Amino acid sequence: MARKKFDEETESHERWLISYADFITLLFAFFVVMYAISVVNEGKYRVFSNALGDAFGGKRVAPKMVDEIQPSISLPNLAGRRRAEAMRRERELLTLLARDLTSTLAPLVKEGKVRVTQNSRGVSVEINASVLFDSGDAMLNASSKEALLALAVLLKNDPHALQVEGHTDTAPIRSPLFPSNWELSASRASSVVRLFAEAGVPETRMTVIGHGANIPVAANTDPDGRARNRRVAVTILSALPDTTTEIPTR
């Protein structure tokens, strides 16, 4: 009997290895891409791009690096501009106040009894002592109150701090009330502050200083110079903060 020959097709049990190898390859490529993206720089990106180009037969294209984004306004510049704007507004506010003070005290300004000035400290109103006090006295006379009350009306609602300073000439004074010009100058400044407080200017905004004869505005060698030195200065202090520089030790 003739033997039948069967060509039996042998079933392959290793086909899964092909799919598994493809999966592993794709997974490896995925992690390589993720790593390259996470630590990208120009050199690594170019090498990686060229390697992919070689692998897939594509053209090598050098990547265009994105320029670093520069902030349009840096924080120091912004702070500087804000500070400059605050300084400009403060100067304008003090200038308007100085004009109002000059207008209010115009008769005394024209007579040379009052002087209004503006500088980096603020606005200063210097009032000759003859307008406010009798000779050697610290009590305000009757004629002085009208000018001071008009001044208080302007200053009452103004937010700036006030510094009231008393000044004398070099002529010595010795009395039970005023052993020296220190006491006389401080008492005269205090009298002005008390009137301001009674007129509604907050006491917390005011300070008193007595300089005696130590800050003259004229020579004390003649009567006119001594008269100019006897004065009370009301300074409306600028709200701009003082800049402090610490001196390092050597």
UniProtKB/TrEMBL annotation:
Residues 120-240 form the OmpA-like domain. Its main location: membrane. The chain crosses the membrane at residues 20-40. It is a single-pass membrane protein. It is found in: Cell membrane. InterPro entries: Bact_OuterMem_StrucFunc, MotB-like_N_dom, OmpA-like, OmpA-like_sf. GO terms for cellular component: plasma membrane. It comes from the Bacteria. Keywords: Cell membrane, Cell projection, Cilium, Flagellum, Membrane, Transmembrane, Transmembrane helix. PROSITE patterns: OMPA_2. Belongs to the MotB family. This is Flagellar motor protein MotD.
